[in-house]
């Protein structure tokens, strides 16, 4: 019913904006702005200079994380948690005693928000904070709130208060569409949690859910844990590529871009060597999910997880994946043949294509065929330039500007975290984005978006502004240059900013459906759509310029870069089909017909085509099995939808303001408050009215 298991939200409204925004909408005066004398806009400059740290706030009041006073110390999580639980009790009593009506849904949403305000923030802190004490306190808060949520999802009195509303046809008909949908979503959460079961089975469902939360956390931590090998077992000439620790070599990743075949092979075999504890954790996680699904009335966990998505059921997902695989197969074989030819050219002694080869050799082919080398592009993609590019795009498309704001002392968890205020030209402040962009010890090696606080309309009429974190793993700046991004890093930045804009622009009445709180196979549409902008030369030409000379990136280089991304694209997508199929099988019929490793081997050879490497277990590094369990296909399905939106809305003009406003109004603004395909169809229908001659839209809709 509430926030655990969904994309979530929490934070604190704080800080201020450049003075020209004083008085706009809900903005306030009394502003500090950091002025840097360069050719960049304020946001570009902020990301191309060293962080100023907390020295500006030596005499200011110390705030807690995200401006939450209690979180100035790890113990504050317990205080925040207790306050949330106290408020929860009051709201449960209120929900159960209030006559059925629209107010019932508002109370449920406030109940959800009060728990998410702690759980979502803790969900981020437990993996990202550099201090172990904060991580441990956040982990405990996550578990505590998660347990309460699962108990509420099986609370019969609470369920009946909502059921009375939805059973009254006259009352339901009087609800506006968003309120009705949110009420139905809360009811759906009760149903998939086993509210219809007897008391003993409901308790069993709660216990299973809590166990799944614990196993998920353990498995997720294990996916990033490095492996080590005795130094003498590695050839001496490749040891310098890895970290040494006494008599051991530490392998913390796949080193997929390393030019030496032996380095990639060693990294692949050692990093993916099976860990018995991690394997047991995965088996228990999959088994517990299956038990829960069967307990609450579903054939498999996949059937349960896909309720309410675009795909609806696992049969549709598998049909989609199999059809896509069939369409890709011929091109994938050509890609592998091309990779094999290049490997034979560079390494005649061993030309068989292995799983550690495609990322490296496809890069070599791109560089040779299109005369590009990623390092030639990096000077044109300083982080400041890329942020400026996002600022230009968002301003022209949606009337939005990004402003860097100095965080208060204690507000951020690392001194290099930047805080952005998102400002609309007429609506004023929309929300905040915290940019945790740089590599540091113990930080997860993944790019992702976290909702810290969801937007919602409060009882006093004010709008609770959304707060999110974007987490990347970019190299730090050096004495001689700012942070420079490869083209791939730039594309990832645009992707994650797509999630952030979904959160910022989702102006729903209820936080339960704000921004990215929508079906998973729709949540990736805005982020993947941003990749299309990042690969369009008309967009890239607006910001890609040399960090030293200011020289624009030549149009021919931009065009070659965009064309080069088609190289081995089929093999890349085929790999995603393999991952998505594996995910479906793991969450399909149980008991599984074989071990997870045997299933990996079979699926890899059938849906990818490259041989399985003995004594490896890639599935133990498959972190998406936690947050995207039975839903990894979402990336592929969202790509199909995003492609359609791009072609029909922005291909002719990526800066089309009218198309941008329609995209915001018909898709982004609703978050999860409308059925996903209704939103897509609304964008297309409006587009037909503007461009009736573009008849291929009808064809897309029929397909």
UniProtKB/TrEMBL annotation:
Which is a Gene Ontology cellular component entry for this protein? mitochondrial matrix
Asked if the keyword Endoplasmic reticulum belongs to this entry, the reply reads no
Query: Into which family does the record put it?
Result: Belongs to the peptidase M3 family.
Coiled-coil residues: none
Signal peptide positions are: none
Keyword Acetylation on this protein? yes
Q: Which UniProt keywords are given for this protein, alphabetically ordered? A: Acetylation, Calcium, Cobalt, Hydrolase, Iron, Magnesium, Manganese, Metal-binding, Metalloprotease, Mitochondrion, Protease, Transit peptide, Zinc
**What is the main EC category here?**
hydrolase
PANTHER family reported in the protein's UniProt record: MITOCHONDRIAL INTERMEDIATE PEPTIDASE, PROTEASE M3 THIMET OLIGOPEPTIDASE-RELATED
- Native source organism of the sequence: Piliocolobus tephrosceles
Compartments, as annotated in UniProt = Mitochondrion matrix
Peptidase M3A/M3B catalytic domain span: 255-684
Q: What does this protein do?
A: Cleaves proteins, imported into the mitochondrion, to their mature size.
State the reactions this protein catalyses: Release of an N-terminal octapeptide as second stage of processing of some proteins imported into the mitochondrion
Could you tell me what this protein is called? Mitochondrial intermediate peptidase
Q: Which cofactor does it need?
A: Zn(2+)
InterPro entries per the UniProt record, alphabetical: M3A_MIP (IPR033851), MetalloPept_cat_dom_sf (IPR024079), Neurolysin/TOP_dom2 (IPR024077), Pept_M3A_M3B (IPR045090), Pept_M3A_M3B_dom (IPR001567)
Gene Ontology molecular function, alphabetical: metal ion binding; metalloendopeptidase activity
